Amino acid sequence: MTGQERTRRGRGTGTPELYDFSQPMTLTREHSRAIEVALQGFARQWGTILSSRLGLLATVDLERLDLTGYDAHINTLPASTTGVVLQFEPSRTPALLQLPTNLTMTLVDCLLGGPAVDLGMEFRELTEIEWKLMSDMLQLACTDLTNAVRTIGPLSFSLRTVRYSPSFMQLAAASEPVIVGHFQMTIGPVTAPITLMVLAEPVIAALREADEESGRSVEEQAAHDLAVNQLVDRLTEVPLPVTVRFGGHHMSAAEVGALEVGSVVSLRHGVDSPLDVVVDGVTLAHAAIGANGTRVACLVVSTQEEA
């Protein structure tokens, strides 16, 4: 056997990597590196802000980056934890920043002037005052994250709400590809892992758009921007059927067959309960019954994002 043959055989003795056909989306080396650089910048800046706010040495380090399915990621999280739901723009999709209970309570204690120690507390939900303290700090984290991902594209993050049971959040379809950044946060002697999850499609779309723009001339870019703006303008003019509906009610086939003029169907919808505002089968808002002049109307009282 020649030296060249041995080299070829040696290269083929590595452990094969299984391909998951349910997750066909992949990250190129360039795209993975771009996301890592952005998240590393976020981690450094967030650690600096935490140190100044807490008066203690705090560091945040990016450990690794994963591309996986939403359900697969959620199954790795504790059954009860602090799940901070973020709004990811411009795709208007949710993102999830997960902090374990011991780290959350340490942060709250430090924000109140306490020492950086692991309190060893069992899980509990944050009180209104504790969430106010945390939300102020997390707003700054969203600003740092937004500034960091500007290297990828015109992306931004904002704080939405907090949830405590990841398995009941249903932020995306089970098989939806997500990008997960795994971080290690250290505050004094307390160290804990945290994760940041975003839907993969909008991030990869922004990276691909940046790749396309980098290869265009000034004239080509101007023509592309004009075409995109015209498309957006036309899309905003597309008529959409909007339905306002009461809550549904299940009936047996016999009951449906017995319906006739004068039959009364109980909807089991409270008189004070809001109606659903539906577009193409998707509930976008909730509304109260009202009137506009001589016509029946509805008043939107909440959007689905606020619900």
Write up this protein:
The protein is of the alpha+beta class. It folds into 2 domains: 29-209, CheC-like (Chemotaxis protein chec), CATH 3.40.1550.10; 240-245 and 272-307, no CATH class. It contains 8 helices and 10 strands. The protein has helices at 3-11, 29-54, 70-74, 101-111, 128-149, 200-214, 218-235, 253-257, and strands at 58-69, 82-89, 93-99, 156-163, 177-187, 190-199, 242-245, 275-279, 282-292, 295-303. A 6-stranded antiparallel sheet has the order 1-5-6-3-2-4. A 4-stranded antiparallel sheet has the order 7-8-9-10, with no helix packed on it. β9 and β10 (295-303) form a beta hairpin. α2 (29-54) crosses α5. The radius of gyration is 25 Å and the shape is globular. The N and C termini lie far apart (70 Å). Mean pLDDT is 85; it is low at 5-10.
Shape: globular
Q: If you average the pLDDT, what whole number results?
A: 85
Spell the H/E element sequence: HHEHEEHHEEEHHEHEEE
**Euclidean distance between termini CA atoms:** 70 Å
Largest sheet: 6 strands, antiparallel
Helix amount:
25-40%
Number of DSSP-assigned strands: 10
The CATH architecture designation of the largest domain is 3-Layer(aba) Sandwich
CATH class of the largest domain: Alpha Beta
Cα gyration radius (Å): 25 Å
Strand content: 25-35%
Low-confidence stretches: 5-10
Topology:
Layout: H1 3-11, H2 29-54, E1 58-69, H3 70-74, E2 82-89, E3 93-99, H4 101-111, H5 128-149, E4 156-163, E5 177-187, E6 190-199, H6 200-214, H7 218-235, E7 242-245, H8 253-257, E8 275-279, E9 282-292, E10 295-303
